[in-house]
UniProtKB/TrEMBL annotation:
<dbReference type="GO" id="GO:0008499">
    <property type="term" value="F:N-acetyl-beta-D-glucosaminide beta-(1,3)-galactosyltransferase activity"/>
</dbReference>
<comment type="pathway">
    <text>Protein modification; protein glycosylation.</text>
</comment>
<keyword id="KW-0735">Signal-anchor</keyword>
<comment type="similarity">
    <text>Belongs to the glycosyltransferase 31 family.</text>
</comment>
<feature type="transmembrane region" description="Helical">
    <location>
        <begin position="21"/>
        <end position="38"/>
    </location>
</feature>
<keyword id="KW-0325">Glycoprotein</keyword>
<keyword id="KW-0443">Lipid metabolism</keyword>
<protein>
    <recommendedName>
        <fullName>Hexosyltransferase</fullName>
        <ecNumber>2.4.1.-</ecNumber>
    </recommendedName>
</protein>
<keyword id="KW-0812">Transmembrane</keyword>
<keyword id="KW-1133">Transmembrane helix</keyword>
<keyword id="KW-0328">Glycosyltransferase</keyword>
<dbReference type="GO" id="GO:0000139">
    <property type="term" value="C:Golgi membrane"/>
</dbReference>
<keyword id="KW-0333">Golgi apparatus</keyword>
<keyword id="KW-0472">Membrane</keyword>
<dbReference type="InterPro" id="IPR002659">
    <property type="entry name" value="Glyco_trans_31"/>
</dbReference>
<dbReference type="Pfam" id="PF01762">
    <property type="entry name" value="Galactosyl_T"/>
</dbReference>
<dbReference type="GO" id="GO:0006493">
    <property type="term" value="P:protein O-linked glycosylation"/>
</dbReference>
Length: 358
């Protein structure tokens, strides 16, 4: 009798503990989701359309109408551009070009990094870390930064600095559109135009955001056995909801895009593709109505071409949420967002030091 009484007590205590930890777990989960959303609000290019994964109600808590874009360069209040929320992504020309960059050698992989003109800090972080890995397993890798025109008041000074930086490193491409968040689709299409014009002989390209950690060796290893054509991979979002609340960061009205779901697309933080796709996507972009969400737009163009996206061989290779640093984990992944440029640099450096990974 007493024993069973005690057991009941223990059981109910256990249940109570269980409930408590469940509540705590739920609260922690919500807090960490909020944290990540805030991290992404501050992330430079915002192309990781992460919250398309989340329900609209959650998403709507963010007031985005005054988001600063382009890494703090321009802070113009957002006015909805008409009619498609993006200038037609066509007929831009290069102010700074590197036409030889991809032609003189047989380049295996080109890393294309969209970045705001004034964000030299991000470029320098990459130049001192994964951007230095130009030869992996006999494969030649090219690294290029892609910017538009500075839009801020000190744009003349910025432009001068950019020209000097370009003289020094010869790794910058600049096209003559205004560099702003709502012009990222233009940036991506310009990137594809450049690849198809100056980089025909390369095998693969990756579009990667400047705030990412990249493990170049693992990327090359994934690509060695990959298909040579019609191949695009990354963190593939399938059946992502179109956000219909005007206050949400990625709002698209029905008049611009009527289906409830987007076609599959690879999250903009980092996607890899075979180079034949550059030309095909440029052609498709002349027919597919542009939207400002660049990764979604590439998904729409892939859909138009009838080419399916490929999931990466392992679900943990591409990471939309910053992965806590641990040598073992980082020795196995390909790309992850980071919380700061300093993390990006520190993690890469630690991974280069000798010693076992796991
Ligand atoms: C969101 O920002 C807009 C533009 O600054 C402002 O008018 C509006 O009151 C804000 N809404 C909320 C809920 O903070
Ligand atoms: C783009 O340029 C080409 C020739 O340079 C011209 O024929 C075409 O009309 C232009 N398209 C747009 C949309 O301006
Ligand atoms: C591209 O590849 C072809 C065939 O391998 C070669 O003949 C040509 O010289 C290459 N072009 C450049 C610019 O490297
Ligand atoms: C995008 O760039 C074009 C060309 O420079 C410019 O006319 C347009 O105002 C820009 N849009 C935004 C939202 O910055």
């Amino acid at each position: 009798m007493e024993v069973s009484e005690e057991r009941r007590q223990v059981q109910s205590n256990g249940r109570c503990r269980y409930h408590r930890s469940y509540v705590i777990f739920t609260i922690l989960l919500i807090l960490s989701l909020c944290y990540y959303i805030i991290v992404y609000e501050n992330s430079e290019t915002w192309t990781a359309t992460v919250s398309l994964f989340f329900p609209e109600t959650f998403h709507n808590k963010i007031n985005v109408s005054q988001t600063t874009v382009s890494g703090g360069i321009s802070a113009e209040p957002w006015k909805p551009p008409e009619p498609y929320y993006v200038a037609y992504p066509n007929n831009y020309s290069f102010v700074i070009n590197e036409p030889e960059k991809c032609q003189k050698e047989n380049v295996f992989l080109v890393l294309m990094i969209p970045v705001a003109p004034g964000n030299m800090a991000a470029r320098d972080a990459i130049r001192s870390t994964w951007g230095t890995e130009k030869l992996v397993a006999d494969k030649i890798i090219s690294v290029l930064f892609l910017t538009g025109l500075p839009t801020s008041q000190d744009s003349e000074k910025l432009q001068e600095d950019l020209l000097q930086e370009s003289e020094k490193y010869h790794d910058i491409l600049q096209s003559d559109f205004w560099d702003s968040y709502y012009n990222l689709t233009i940036k991506t299409v310009v990137m594809l135009e450049w690849l198809s014009a100056y980089c025909q002989n390369a095998s693969y390209a990756m579009k990667i955001d400047s705030d990412m950690f990249l493990n170049v060796k693992n990327l090359v290893n994934m690509l060695l056995p990959a298909p040579k054509q019609n191949y695009m991979t990354g963190l593939v979002a399938r059946s992502a909801m179109v956000l219909r609340n005007p206050h949400s960061k990625w709002y698209l009205p029905i008049t611009v895009y009527s289906p409830a779901l987007y076609p599959p697309y690879a999250l903009g933080l980092g996607y890899v593709f075979s180079l034949d796709l550059a030309g095909k996507l440029v052609k498709a972009a002349q027919l597919v109505k542009p939207v400002y969400i660049e990764d979604v737009y590439i998904g729409m163009c892939m859909n138009h071409l009838g080419i399916a996206l490929t999931d990466p061989p392992d679900g943990s290779l591409f990471n939309v949420f910053p992965v806590d640093y641990n040598r073992c984990r980082y020795s196995k992944l390909i790309a992850t967002t980071t919380r700061s440029l300093q993390n990006q640099v520190d993690f890469w450096r630690d991974l280069q030091t000798p010693g076992p990974y796991c």
